[in-house]
């Protein structure tokens, strides 16, 4: 019967775990940050889409003149719809639902045929700000993305 003998690790194997940790840690931190950034961008785009959908629904319910089939986008109605996208209410009170979202970034168009389109654009700058430093390897990298949501609905 053969006996199993355990050998001590060779001297050159000492510290390998620490070197592997030093090499892998920045990669793992980058992946965690990337996951958080993508999740935040997705949540903000979802918020923008829901607000745009609410404004289109509001316009679809209020823009048609009775049974005439004529869509009228009055100044007050478009202002209320823009406020609904930006502030979440037609009065335009409170803080914007997304930092940096303004009523000027909301476009409302009568497409004809009783169809109304609402488009909202939002400059997403990320969790770390609008730029990432290049550390002397060229110009800084811009992380600003233009999130856009467009909804078209038929006026009722």
Account of the protein in words:
This protein has helices at 16-62, 75-87, and strands spanning 106-112, 115-124, 131-132, 141-142, 145-154. It is 38% helix and 20% strand. The model has no long low-confidence stretch (mean pLDDT 87). The chain is α+β, with helices and mostly antiparallel strands and 156 residues long. β1 and β2 form a beta hairpin. The strands form two sheets. The chain has a three-stranded antiparallel beta sheet, with helices on one face.
Strand neighbour order, sheet with most strands = 1-2-5
The total strand number stands at 5
Terminus-to-terminus distance: 90 Å
Describe the global form: elongated
Pick out its properties.
156 residues; 3-stranded antiparallel β-sheet; 20% strand; alpha+beta; 5 strands
List the helices and strands and how they pair.
Blueprint: H1 16-62, H2 75-87, E1 106-112, E2 115-124, E3 131-132, E4 141-142, E5 145-154
Antiparallel strand pairs: 1-2, 2-5, 3-4
What can be said about this structure in brief?
This protein is an alpha+beta fold and 156 residues long.
